[in-house]
Design a protein that fits this description.
Layout (H helix, E strand, L loop, with lengths): L4 H5 L4 H14 L5 E2 L11 H11 L14 H15 L10 E4 L2 H12 L5 E6 L4 H8 L3 E6 L15 H6 E7 L11 H14 L2 E5 L21 H4 E6 L12 E5 L1 H12 L7 H12 L3 H23 L12 E5 L6 H12 L1 E2 L1 E2 L10 E5 L4 H12 L10
Parallel strand pairs: 1-10, 3-4, 3-5, 5-6, 6-7
Antiparallel strand pairs: 2-8, 7-8, 9-12, 11-12
The protein binds pyridoxal-5'-phosphate.
């Protein structure tokens, strides 16, 4: 069989390998505690499930959906942006596009902007799909390192002018996976000015906007003046509404960019099952109180995990948002060797920072989406452990 060259360039998706390891260990009878993938363990709120049951009985929902979704779901997204972020006047017809989960839209977005050889500015460490989409489109990733000393924000001034002139789009993601960092208005203003200067489209991923700690309130990129002139924002019901399994996201903002994504998608997919679109309407227009109660649960878990890591002497920056703790590995270890040590000694699964890019090396990511009793088990294992000397180099 002859496969494409792009397949050889593509690293296996990090969680595919992690799921295999977990399955193998469990088959050996090992009780694994996983801090791996960010997949909320808390169920989807009841009213949203009730809406699915009802919507599944409607024959119209048994047929092909439209790629751009039901008018009512686009309206619900625009209204939610207004009530949650004060983003006024989004046109549901031209500035809002539902997605089969944000991942789908993020992966396909590259086809809208990049021809072979075109440059895409990509943060590193980052959600791997920005680079994978760029690769699929034949584009070139230019890495913007996310460094602790810069608050894990790309240093736009460090991008050489000739690279910026060539670049067509730039990915940003706040609240950030994997670092838990956030961006404030001044940073978005700087990014918008940079985008204008070099004619670069901004693709902002706000999948974690509602998962916040210590009363923090995350901004939407679209709240910032001029954002809609240069960019779109990707959002997702997965993390904020415990709906990873249902697959619903959105792209909102610049109408030309939204239309480009619609054109690509309408040639590739046939939209989101309508009963799931009805769930999304319920999620966006119904009670939002589960968001605070979820965050209270995640915050307790964050504090327990951080305390255990700090006791072990690991460097941790307390995350303001997102579902993760991003911790430095001890001296002498790499991301991979420390991940392997945690698995072998404690049957704990974490994600090596290096799977988010070269600048993730030296870190591990711990997800807080594990049930409380398993968090406690994992923390007990960490608390009763001392880090062995690192492997010989
Ligand atoms: C930064 C980021 N964006 C998008 C997604 C995907 O969201 P969805 O479940 O809507 O595809 C994830 C999932 O982990 C993510 O971490």
């Amino acid at each position: 069989m002859k496969f494409s060259a792009r397949l050889d360039k593509l690293a296996p998706y990090p969680f595919v390998e992690i799921s295999r390891i977990i399955a193998r260990k469990r088959a050996e009878g090992v009780e694994i505690v996983t801090f791996g993938i960010g997949d909320p363990d808390i169920p989807t709120p009841e009213p949203i499930i009730d809406r699915l049951i009802e919507a599944s009985r409607t024959p119209a929902n048994h047929r092909y959906p439209e790629t751009d979704g039901l008018p009512e779901v686009r309206e619900a997204i625009a209204d939610w942006y207004k009530s949650r972020f004060g983003v006024d006047g989004l046109d549901p017809a031209s500035e809002v596009l539902p997605l089969i989960g944000a991942k789908e839209g993020i992966g396909h977005a590259a086809f809208c902007f990049l021809d072979p050889g075109d440059v895409c500015l990509i943060p590193d460490p980052a959600y791997p799909v920005y680079a994978a989409g760029t690769l699929f489109a034949g584009g070139e990733s230019y890495v913007m390192p996310l460094l602790e000393e810069n608050g894990f924000l790309p240093d736009l001034e460090a991008i050489p002018a000739e690279v910026a002139r060539d670049a067509k789009v730039m990915w940003l993601n706040y609240p950030n996976n994997p670092t838990g960092a956030v961006a404030e208005k001044a940073y978005y203003e700087e990014a918008i000015a940079f985008a204008r200067e070099y004619d670069i489209g901004i693709l902002h991923d706000a999948a974690y906007s509602e998962v916040v700690f210590d009363g923090y309130k995350a901004l939407s990129f679209l709240e910032v003046e001029g954002a809609k002139d240069v960019g779109i924002e990707f959002h997702s019901l997965s993390k904020c509404f415990n709906m990873t399994g249902w697959r619903f996201g959105s792209a909102v903002g610049n109408p030309d960019m939204v239309h480009a994504l619609f054109t690509i998608k309408s040639n590739l997919d046939s939209g989101i099952p309508q009963a799931i679109q009805e769930m999304a309407i319920e999620a966006l227009t119904g009670p939002q109180d589960h968001i605070d109660s979820n965050n209270a649960i995640y915050q307790v878990r964050r504090d327990k995990v951080m305390d255990a890591l700090v006791r072990l002497g690991l460097g941790v920056v307390p995350p303001k948002a997102a579902l993760y703790v991003w911790a430095k590995v001890p001296p002498g270890y790499t991301s991979a060797s420390f991940t392997a040590r945690l698995l072998d000694d404690l049957a704990l699964v974490v994600t090596p920072g290096s799977s988010y890019g070269e600048n993730g090396e030296g870190y591990i990511r711990l997800s807080l989406t594990t049930p409380d009793e398993m968090i406690d088990k994992g923390v007990d294992r960490l608390n009763s452990w001392n880090i062995p000397p690192p492997p010989e180099a």
